[in-house]
Amino acid sequence: MPDWPALRSLMPSNVRIGTAVDGRVLATDARYRAVLGRDFNAATAENAMKWSQLQPTPGTYVWQVSDDLVAFAEENGLAMYGHTLVWHSSVPSWVSESWSAEELGELLRQHVTAVVSRYRGKIWAWDVVNEVLDEDGSLRDTIWLRKLGPDYIADAFRWAHAADPDARLFINDYGTEGRTRKADGLLRLVSKLRASGVPIHGVGFQSHLQWDKAPVEVAGNLRRFADRGLSVAITELDVRIQLPVTPERLARQAMLYEQMLAACLAVSTCESFTLWGFTDARSWIPYNYPGYGAACLFDSEMKPKLAHSALVDALREDRTGAPGG
Q: Any idea which residues carry the catalytic annotation?
């Protein structure tokens, strides 16, 4: 067994510590499974529950990878976070914008209902809509906005709630963890949705960070959402380092991880703190940010890095009531 402190054993009981999980690696890598089950008490499907993965051809769902992930979570005491029901980047290739608004709206309703219903009672929260905003805080131009208008967002939440009334329903986006124009737009959007009676329970802040660029006023930003009666969650945290890796960059990375955890713990409605993958061996960063890497808590050999130690130290301080928690 690994000899480092398990993060899940140190987290406050009201905050889950989670990670995105690669379902295919889960099925083949025993060491990956061991660290996942030991360090975390929550899991998010990295890709397995995205629409394009679940329904690559019309009329047929492929559930095996997502089913296996949910089963692993149940067997190992991990709360399952569903990701994601509506996202412009995971629309199956067979869906055509030439179809009528009525056809597309019904297709979207059927998809949301089918997925949430299948995992009813097994998934504690869903990212219902993902990345619906542009950088200026306005609604992103997507197939759903063009064809269905802005009401598709409210509709998706209502459909998800009808399919599983007990699931927590989140809106999720990037570039909103600090005080930005996009965060301002997100606050306006969720406030409007809530005022209209839409069953939106929380906001997910992705938090894909760079080692030398700290977001501004994270705790204060999260708190203004909490003040509106919303739960908040750090949903996709990673901190990419410009290569080559150096001790200074690892130290800066560790500081950012700790600062994000501290911000979550400082806000009473923060329900979960989730990493976007936990090992550099399986990180999405090198493929999407050329020249960057080493973004996770564990290195490519599955050994904990300085960032892991920083989280352990912060959680121990929080438990004892010492400053800095």
A: 131, 236
| Mutual angle of helices 151-163 and 101-118, in 10-degree steps | 30
Residues of the chain with pLDDT under 50: 322-325
Count of the separate structural domains present in the chain:
1
* Mean pLDDT across the chain: 96
How is residue 304 annotated by DSSP? B
Q: Is 10 helix (H, G, I), strand (E, B) or coil?
A: helix
Let me know if residue 249 belongs to a domain.
Answer: yes
Domain ranges, residue 143: 7-320
Reduced to 3 states (helix: H, G, I; strand: E, B; else coil), residue 56 is: coil
pTM, whole model, 2 decimals?
Answer: 0.96
Total residue length of the chain: 325
Per residue, the 3-state secondary structure of 154-222, as one string, reads HHHHHHHHHHCCCCEEEEEECCCCCCCHHHHHHHHHHHHHHHCCCCCCEEEECCEEECCECCCCHHHHH
Per residue in 206-253, pLDDT tens? 999 999 999 999 999 999 999 999 999 999 999 999 999 999 999 999
Say which CATH number the domain at 134 has: 3.20.20.80
Pairing of strands 270-275, 231-242: parallel
